[in-house]
Amino acid sequence: MTVHELEVSVRKEGGGAVVALAGELNASAAEALDAAYAEAIAGGAGHVVLDFERADYINSTGIALIVGLLAQARAQALEVRARGLSDHYREIFEITRLSDFMTIEGKEHA
Q1: Per DSSP, what are the bridge partners of residue 11?
Q2: CA 76/CA 9 separation, integer angstroms
Q3: 3-state class (DSSP) for residue 40
Q4: Which has the closest alpha carbon to 84: 50, 110, 57, 34?
Q5: With 60 as the cut, is the pLDDT of residue 29 above it?
Q6: How far does the chain reach from its first CA to its final CA, in angstroms?
Q7: Which of 28, 42, 47, 77 has the smallest count of CB within 10 Å of its CB?
Q8: Which domains does the chain carry?
Q9: Mean pLDDT for the stretch of residues 47-66
Q10: Picking from 16-20, 21-25, 43-47, which range would have the lowest pLDDT averaged per residue?
């Protein structure tokens, strides 16, 4: 399996920030994800959207990184949303109950 290191970009959108994830969300993604989250909340974003549209793979460590990010956001009373999840990852977010702690955009058909 070819590893696609996580690439992250941050942009402001609608009073919040979008963190676009591309590649693999695993142990090697911790630094990039932390830096992107810090950039996203700098300047007082009202919410953070994690955009998984181009995320190729999320393993259990990647899920743990998301849990850590959600804990930070909760401590800061900051809403986190997810968008662009495949049906597979949407189901994983529901099974792991991540969906209880973030809004999953486009969830209407689930």
Answers
A1: 18
A2: 22
A3: helix
A4: 50
A5: yes
A6: 30
A7: 77
A8: 7-109 (3.30.750.24)
A9: 96
A10: 43-47
